[in-house]
Design brief:
With 106 residues, the chain is α+β, with helices and mostly antiparallel strands. 36% of the residues lie in helices and 40% in strands. A hairpin with a 5-residue loop joins strand 3 and strand 4.
Length: 106
């Protein structure tokens, strides 16, 4: 399965369109991660715990996108857009959504 942010795949012709599909992941934060992130905010630097959760959420959203495309008979998803949102009371959860067009390439 080819997943790409571009509207086409170079050297390959799109032979069928299956429509827009999406995959989502919502990850909750925990109190220890929040505590260490707030310390990082004060002293500066990167928050490895949040970066890891963000990477995991993006991976899940793209995997869902791939699974949905496969069920439709597609062998690629083009024009993928990734969106990130903080949701929930006090912004305690992270949502990553991936959307794109499921297609069949020759």
């Amino acid at each position: 399965m080819i997943l790409t942010t571009t509207p086409s795949v170079e050297g390959r012709k799109i032979t069928a369109y299956f429509g827009v599909i999406a995959g989502e992941a919502i990850m909750g934060a925990n109190i220890m991660r929040d505590l260490f992130a707030s310390i990082t905010d004060v002293i500066g630097g990167r928050s490895g715990a949040y970066e890891e959760k963000l990477l995991e959420a993006r991976h899940i959203a793209l995997r869902e996108l791939e699974e949905r495309a496969s069920k439709l008979g597609a062998n690629a998803v083009v024009g993928i857009d990734l969106d990130y949102e903080v949701i929930g009371q006090s912004g305690s959860m992270l949502m990553v959504s991936a959307s794109g067009t499921a297609v069949r390439l020759e």
